[in-house]
Write a structure and sequence with these properties.
Elements lengths: L5 H6 L24 H13 L4 H13 L8 H33 L5 H28 L5
Length: about 140
Amino acid sequence: MAKPPADEEASRAPVRRRGREPGGPRMHRVKVSLNDAELAIVQEAADRENQALAAWVGEVSLAVATERVVPVSADAKKVLQELIQTRGQLRRVGNNLNQVAYTLNAEGEVTDAQIKAVMALVNETVRRVDEATLQVMRERRPRA
């Protein structure tokens, strides 16, 4: 394997290791077996976090075990992104409805086109929330 040039080695940030724990030294070791593809995926994740492989595995496994982090599939991430975007859309819909109510109270006139536009936005947003909610419900695993 070719060694990277010295200036490239110097420019890399040092790999982070897990910090010391107040519970004392870590004396227990766990062996994890991975195939080449799995190792590449896990190593890439550790590299993204600039952590040593074992440090990343230890940190992530403790985060999941203590329920600080809930693992989700890539599809679930897309659904969560959709829900986040929909929350923003709902805020805008609420703002539009407030403007319609203000105009009705102040002037007593709102055009049919304005009401139809707001209602179309409401219906589309509710449809998106319903779809995302159903997707989350389908992917949710029952608790033991």
